[in-house]
Design goal:
CATH class of the largest domain: Mainly Beta
Helix content: 25-40%
Oligomer: single chain
Number of helices: 3
Number of domains: 3
Distance between the termini: 77 Å
Number of strands: 21
Largest sheet: 6 strands, antiparallel, barrel
Structural class: alpha+beta
Shape: rod-shaped
Strand order of the largest sheet: 3-12-15-14-13-16
Strand content: 25-35%
CATH superfamily of the largest domain: Efflux pump adaptor protein, beta barrel domain
Radius of gyration: 54 Å
CATH topology of the largest domain: Elongation Factor Tu (Ef-tu), domain 3
Order of helices and strands: HEEEEEEEHHEEEEEEEEEEEEEE
Length: about 425
């Protein structure tokens, strides 16, 4: 006879409860363990990274800027007077000499003034010639009177000598001799007066001629001025070179001072670099530089800084570099170039290639590679002065250390990178 089972259902419920509790505890423990685990280090492909090595040696400090080749000798040709453009014999791009006519202007008023000045000059010269003839004729008359007075004086003296002899021989009375002597004295005075009158007339003639010559010289100067004004209506280049710009057209009315053309000497060029104002603070005249014209393999030209602009424009400073050697064939004005200016040289310092992040004279965080090259750990590095391609290391690294120079913003929040 079977015996009835009692308490089995309670036992099964108890076992299920214990099992569920145990599973819950295990799940909770696993969750806590997983939450306490550190996240896995991210991976980075070494082929996509730029890696530099810390070295000790001499470090060249330089700055770089883009720019263009510009002529050293550039001249704007402006209109010296108002006029209308009648003809343009030369067009931009042609080679010109100093006497090449670039623009021909017309101005009827100036031409009329020149004609009037020429007429007045000719009239003044005619008046001078007429006055000279009149004065010469008057002077000849005066000279004739002087000669007549001298002749009468001489005759009177001869008469005195004759009367003196006759008086000695008692052939004439004393009164005759005295009259001859009186007449001789008067004629001598008259002769001296005529001579003085001749000298004064000559001086007066010279003064009158000088005044007329001064008037003619004044008319000549005015005529030369008017003639130059007419000649300036033909605008010339002034220097040999290449005509670069001609911003006027036939029929256009221009005023005095209007720029008509720009002429440059293409064989004399300099580099005009634009350097960031934060880097240009140490650039000064006299520093050595190199200009890459990118024309051919020999396109790097040495140069010297000739001028640094006193102010910046749009965050850039204009630096003029004078070229120390001949330009390669194919270099021409407005050619785009790259320039590097050497500022200083540091001796026996730690340095590495310049990273893509961080500023000079600051503390940056960089990833230093482990000796086996499989991982990279974040370290703080103190950097000093920087150049175009290099940066000085003041602390945090030693010779031989390798660091990642690429931008590592994507690894922010991680102290280690696994390299593959």
């Amino acid at each position: 006879m079977d015996k009835p089972r009692t308490g089995q259902a309670e036992k099964r419920r108890l076992r299920r409860t214990i099992l569920f509790v145990a599973i819950g505890v295990v799940v909770a423990l696993i969750s806590v363990g997983i939450s306490r685990l550190e996240p896995a280090a991210p991976q980075a492909d070494t082929q996509t990274l730029v890696i530099g090595q810390v070295q000790r040696g001499d470090m060249v400090l330089d700055v770089r800027g883009a720019g263009t080749l510009v002529p050293v000798d550039i001249r704007w040709i402006s209109a010296s007077q108002e006029g209308r453009v009648e003809r343009i014999p030369a067009l931009p791009g042609v080679t010109v000499t100093a006497d090449t006519v670039l623009v021909e202007l017309s101005n009827p008023e100036i031409e009329q003034h020149a004609f009037e000045a020429e007429s007045n000059l000719r009239a003044g010269q005619a008046d001078l010639d007429n006055l000279r003839a009149q004065l010469e004729s008057a002077l000849l008359n005066q000279q004739s009177q002087v000669a007549a007075a001298e002749s009468q004086d001489a005759q009177a003296k001869l008469q005195v000598e004759a009367d003196q002899k006759l008086y000695s021989d008692q052939l004439v009375p004393e009164i005759t001799l005295k009259l001859s002597q009186l007449r001789s004295t008067q004629l001598a005075k008259a002769s001296r007066i005529e001579q003085e009158r001749y000298i004064k007339s000559e001086r007066s003639n010279q003064a009158q001629l000088a005044a007329q010559r001064a008037r003619v010289a004044q008319l000549q100067a005015l005529y030369d001025l008017r003639r130059r004004q007419v000649e300036l209506l033909k605008v010339r280049a002034g220097i040999p070179g290449v005509l670069q710009e001609l911003p006027v057209q036939v029929g256009q009315r221009v005023t005095a001072g209007t720029n008509l053309a720009r002429v440059a000497r293409p064989e004399l060029l300099k580099a005009e670099l634009r350097i960031q104002e934060t880097q240009a603070k140490d650039v000064r005249a006299g520093l050595k530089a190199s200009i890459d014209t990118r024309v051919d393999r020999n396109g790097i030209i040495p140069g010297t800084v000739g001028r640094v602009a006193p102010s910046s424009q749009d965050g850039q400073v204009i630096v003029d570099v004078n070229l120390d050697s001949a330009l390669p064939q194919g270099a021409r004005p407005n050619l785009s170039v790259d320039g590097t200016v050497v500022i200083d040289r540091l001796t026996s310092v730690l340095y590495t290639s310049r990273p893509a992040f961080g500023q000079a004279n600051s503390t940056v965080e960089m990833f230093k590679l482990s000796p086996d090259g499989k991982t990279a750990s974040r370290v703080k590095v103190q950097v000093g002065r920087s150049s175009v391609n290099q940066i000085q290391i003041l602390g945090g690294l030693k010779v031989g250390d390798k660091v990642i120079l690429s931008d590592t913003q994507q690894y922010d929040g991680h102290d280690t990178i696994r390299l593959i």
